[in-house]
Description:
Elements: E1 7-11, H1 24-38, H2 45-48, H3 53-67, H4 71-87, H5 96-105, E2 109-117, H6 118-127, E3 136-140, H7 151-159, E4 165-170, H8 173-182, E5 185-189, H9 193-198, E6 205-207
Parallel strand pairs: 1-2, 1-4, 2-3, 4-5, 5-6
Amino acid sequence: MVLPRRVALIFDMDNTLIGSRIDFAAIRRSLIALLRAAGATRDPDDVLVRRAIAELVARGAAHDRAHGTSVAPEMWRIIEAQEARGLENAAPLDDAPAVLRALADRGYRIAVLTNNGRAAAEAAIDAAALGGCAETLVARGDAAALKPAGDGVLEVLRRLPGVERAYVIGDSWIDGAAAAATGARFIAYRRPLSELRERGVSPWRTIYHLSELLEITLTD
């Protein structure tokens, strides 16, 4: 048994805690178009659309370093504009504030890990009445690499000393990949197992409502 205060529950934000309207498909299309225009990729679209947004930006940044171009800054401009629109007045999912407070009352350490920029994330959290529900927020720029890399999970654990076990709760394969990279357990939220396994991700558990976390033993 692990004491609850030594257990970290690391929540993704978009479409896990908050009903995001960010058009990730549109972002990918725009980023792929920029990469093609710059001659930064020859991969077919069906390969590129399966890449995480962070991976597409990394491709642009690599091209910039090699050729002195400015692809990545333009990619970030597109991403930030979509974030601002998609998170405006976003509502919480599954009564997330009450669920997170109930988990914290039981002693669990609560964190939010997002690939969004800090300003957009903080505004969305406040709008969804989630302010104060987590001990820490790790956003874009707080860790060396974005999900699917595990750097953000490690940064959360650095900020929460004494944690012996970590769970990542999220709706995307990138959340599962970040968990796997760090030895954390992945709890998939409303995501089909077949879809995750296509990406090489095996969740510890799948839930369809955040309140299910109150019924799961997380200390074994």
